[in-house]
Structures are given as structure tokens and as C-alpha cells.
Amino acid sequence: MPAEIVPGPSGYIPTPAVFEEVELSPPGYGLYLGQIVDELTAMREAARAMLTRRNPTIFPGPKILWGWNAHAMEEAKAILELSAEIPNCRIIPMPDYRPKYPKIDPEAEINPNHPNLTILHNKIEACIFVGVHCHYANLSLRMIRAGTNCFTIALCGELGHEDAMVSIRDLTPEKIRRFKEVLIEVREELGIHHSPTPPPENPSLPQEDFQTLSVLDYGEYSYLLLPRKDEQVTDTE
Q1: With pLDDT > 70 as the criterion, what percentage of the chain qualifies?
Q2: What is the mean pLDDT of the chain?
């Protein structure tokens, strides 16, 4: 029988969920506390956590933040629509996996090498990981379970994550919007009154003058902005 994967703190080095017989869900299903459930149940439990626990926060990763293709951009729009339906929701980005130790600003972004610092500093009790590469998500989710009481939700474009309290796989913009509708239903059942409100601006992020940016400012990511050989760019913003 698989173990229950519940919010921590569970100790310095928690046993990985896969070692406790937790298996990834098949297509059309999700995980809730380590158990395989239908996708609607997983969405409802994720919605309930984001609506009832303190300081709900969405952590988008580089697969969304860098807007590297049309699919990523549409997912980003859907995430913003979802966040607007969650009362007091914040967005703290995870744009870069390079270590920032020993200096990080836990109000500005989450550091995958020390995710528990951002969770603890902001007193976050429910969060969503989305657009995070799976190997970093696995590491961060386990660290969060080790040292915090945060209820973690993984919206994954691949097979999902055993160490999250809720895991939804094969993510698409349409599935994010379906999750949004489920969240609105659960919110109404709970009697929570809320008008769609975008998350507040993050005051810790530096201001950028987009008029003066050049391709060189993007460093090692600049190749994503330049057309490849024989590529025809027909749609730009």
C-alpha cells in the first residue's frame, strides 16, 4: 500500500515517495496524497488547498517564463487567468536554476537550491509548481516537504511528481483552464466571494526598460530570440 504523501515538516531527508510505493498516475488520472485518483478529484483537492490555506502562491518555471514557443505563451496566459480566481494569490517566479547561494531574495523569486527559504519566509501553506523542469521540481518538492508545512501542487507537462501532495500530468492550456473552472466551482461551494483580481506586482523585482533591451541582454538564452537558419519568422509581438 503506498504511503500518504502529506505536508511536512517531515525531517531533514524525507524518504522519496517512490521508495514508499507511490507510483505515477496513468493518463487521465492524478495523484492526491500519494494515491492515484481521477483527474477531477485531484483538481478539486488542489483547488481546496489553494482556497483555504494561507498565502497561496504560484511558482512558474522557465518553461513558461521564457515564452520560448506559442504553447508556453498560451500556458502563461492560462496561469494568469487561474491566479486571478484565487483570493490573495501571489506569483513568485523561478526563472533561473543557477545557484544564488548564499545570497537570495526570497521575496523576489524562489531558488530551486533552497526553496524552503522562500516558502518559510513568505509563510506559504499552498503552492503550485508549473513550467518547472522535472528534475528540479522533484528536488524542490522534496525539500519543501522536508522542512515546511506547505501543500504542494505540481502541474506537469510530462508524467507528474510523486513528492507533491497533488500531481496533475500532461498539462496543456486547456487543462489549466479546466482547473480554473473547477476552482471556481469549489470556491462557490465553500461560500468564498471573490471577483477576479490579478496578482499584485512583485515589488522586489528590478524595473526594466524594455525599450532599451537588446538580444545581448539575454546572455546564453539569446539563441531563443534569434531565427535559426532557413527559419521564417512571420508572427512577432
Answers
A1: 83
A2: 84
Query: Could you state, in order of their start, the residue ranges of all structural domains in the chain?
Result: 27-101+109-124+147-154+170-191
Cell of 78: 492560462
C-alpha cell at 116: 524552503
